[in-house]
Amino acid sequence: LWCSLPWVVMDLIWVGKSALSDDVEVKAKAKDLHPKLLAGMFFFFALGATGGITSLLTSDKPILESPHAVTGLIGLALLTVQTILPSLFEGNPNLRNVHGLLGSGIMTLFLIHSVLGLQLGLSS
């Protein structure tokens, strides 16, 4: 929870600022920062997944038993798809809308993932 929540919040703030701003500099900074934040988010989430899977394997527990693990793997898969979409924007401008909607869905999924992780941690 404490690792994932800051990434989600920072990205939402910067994307929100740029969407509501008329300032060209703010929009340019957000456009530059958005992929960097999400690359960091993917990197740290992948590290967390590696640690979680290692922990489950060393304790002889099934990997996909918890909803936390399932939402994490789905989230990483969707982030991978999300990373590919911008390279296809030129051929199909409607993909920008798909990218935005998918991104909102991914952020919601990771907020749910954070809550599930907190519940999992408190139950142990």
UniProtKB/TrEMBL annotation:
The protein's name? Uncharacterized protein
Highest taxon listed in the record's lineage:
Eukaryota
InterPro entries given in the database record: DUF4079 (IPR025067)
Q: Which residues form a coiled coil?
A: none
Do you know which Gene3D superfamilies this protein is assigned to?
1.20.120.1770
- Segments spanning the bilayer are 37-57, 69-89, 101-122
This protein's UniProt keywords = Membrane, Transmembrane, Transmembrane helix
> Under the cellular component aspect of Gene Ontology, which terms does the record hold?
membrane
| Name of one Pfam family that matches | DUF4079
